[in-house]
Amino acid sequence: MIRFILLQNRQGKTRLAKYYVPLEDSEKHKVEYEVHRLVVNRDPKFTNFVEFRTHKVIYRRYAGLFFSLCVDITDNELAYLECIHLFVEILDHFFSNVCELDLVFNFHKVLVLP
After folding, report:
1. CA geometry: angle at 20 spanning 90 and 91, to 5°?
2. pLDDT tens-digit readout, 12-47
């Protein structure tokens, strides 16, 4: 089960956050910070899966954005990597060559997609 979806740039600015479990605002900010530190500092030679608390974060970097999903520890990582790629392809088709500014200025359209 997906716990949350985060789209963050390299500087740690969250461009999209969708939570499927209830969290307090302070906890959301803490999670966003921890996930960003976790994925940015990893060597590109490592896998795109990393354990996070009692769950697993699956992430992928496209240009300057990190697409991160937090899922249950027993879920299939490759299926979620494919989901991330499909989401990026949909965004690219929808915005015709998507960039970070498309997500910033059209966040209301992007929130409907996932």
Report:
1. 10
2. 999 999 999 999 999 999 999 999 999 998 988 999
Tokens describing residue 103: 């997500």
The DSSP line for 49-89 is EEEETTEEEEEEEETTEEEEEEE-TTS-HHHHHHHHHHHHH
**CA–CA distance, 93 with 18 (Å, rounded to integer):** 21
Q: From CA 58, how far away is CA 66, in angstroms rounded? A: 10
Number of CB atoms found within 10 A of residue 35's CB: 24
pTM: 0.89
